[in-house]
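Changelog-adjacent note: as of this version, every example in the card shows the full chain rather than a window. The one below runs 562 residues end to end.
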Amino acid sequence: MINPMQLVQGNADLETDAVVAGGRGPGGTAEQPTEVNAPGYNSARLPGAVLLSAFVLLALSPVARAVSPAPDGGYDPFNTAEGEFALHELLPGPANTALGASALYSTTTGNVNTATGSAALFENTTGSKNTASGQNALKSNTTGSNNTATGHVALGNENTTGSANTATGRWALLFNSTSNNTATGYGALQGSRTGTSNTADGANALYEDAIFEDHTGSRNVAIGSSALYSNSSGGDNTATGVNALYFNKANYNTATGYQALESNTTGSNNTAHGLNALNANTSGSYNTANGASALFSNTIGTDNTAEGELALYQNTTGSADTALGQAALTNNTSGFQNTALGTLAASNLSTGSNNVAVGFEAGMNLTTGSNNIDIGNRGVAAESGIIRIGTAATQTATFIAGINGVPVSGAQVTVSSTGQLGTRPSSARFKEKIKPMDKASEAIFALEPVTFQYKHQLDSEGAPQFGLVAEEVAEVDPDLVTRDEQGKPYTVRYDAVNAMLLNEFLKKHRKGEEQACRLEKLESRITQLKSLLSQRDAEIQAVTDNQIAARPTAPKPSLSPY
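Full-length structure tokens:
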């Protein structure tokens, strides 16, 4: 039997256009072989009328045109063809199925292919295990294998050797030429050319197509209309949601939610989850935003973390900020290294840096201050370097564990030079150069105790106070004061004053004891002297009495009235 292609190849010397097979029509689709009686045929080109008439009769006869067997049934080995010029080459590739005009037209040794639709898998020759459903689906595939295309011109234009691709939807993976891509939706991955391992899932109106312009990007995943729309070279991105990562051209970004990371172009290693999360980000990198409009305005800020609706909403260039809670740090624009934990925490801070706010509305009054720590306290606007823990009249007692040293009931808490709280040790194990205080304590006699009131910012109630003035004490003994960071006297070491008072007391006490001892001795001596005097008095009295008794008695004169 002779088919039309064999007639063209075997009678080239006749210079005839009797049969032209495999031509291309408008739009790049395959035309069917043109017969001599087809429109546009020029009969003037035949060299001889008689010979031509016989030839044409032969060429147009049912016998000449027939393919053995006709393309409408099963063929060995295990091939099925339904449609004009389906499985046209009829070479021994097994287990192919072609349904539609020119489906699997060029297949030679390719096997286990399924083509449904006009010109589906048209140019496939040796490619195997491909499935094409739709006009011109996988039309240009030649040797690529394990591809699946469903839809008009899906994987149709340039995929020739690419394998393991899946395209579902009209124009899906239209220009693809590589492997391991998955596109689902009208125009999904339409512009992808050399990118590999991409996944796109989205079907919407024209030009709203997942990874529409992707050219060389690889290992991208886009789910949603216009997700990763403009990606051309970025890789390892994941976009889920309408317009997610719309303008992206960078790598390692993850966006989940409507317009999440929509404006990102060159920023990398960003993660955005939620409506409009990191929406305005362009080149900022290493940001994480979880929550609707979290880090919405961020453009070039880096290393930020926002958890909660409107968290770090106004941030543009600020970096290394952490906001956990609804509207936490929402007004921060350029401040950096701030940490806010709690709903509305540090919500009014705009440019301050290195602040920490923990708790509901903690640090909410801060505006531009820096280096503040507010825990359970709203703070004060524009202040810096302040620690506030708790709220007056709300918290009424404080218990702190972990104070340095062994807890002692009533022990005084001190602050070390490194800022550590503790009790002052007094053991000899921690001391050196120990010697008596002697006259050093006499300095306290030059001190002048006063009564006073603290200024309003320190004590709004103005309670009467008793104590010493640090500057005056420093003039008497510089060792009795502590100084601030500028070296100015700040407070009196009352613990040292107390020790000096003790020393002076002991000195006076010892003197008193010595005087008491001397007095006791004097009293004993006096007692002895008194005893001796009493004894002498007794002796004298006895002698006197004896002398009186030894005198002769004189006669008593008579008592006569005359």
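Structural remarks: Residues 1-70, 204-210 have pLDDT under 50 and may be disordered.
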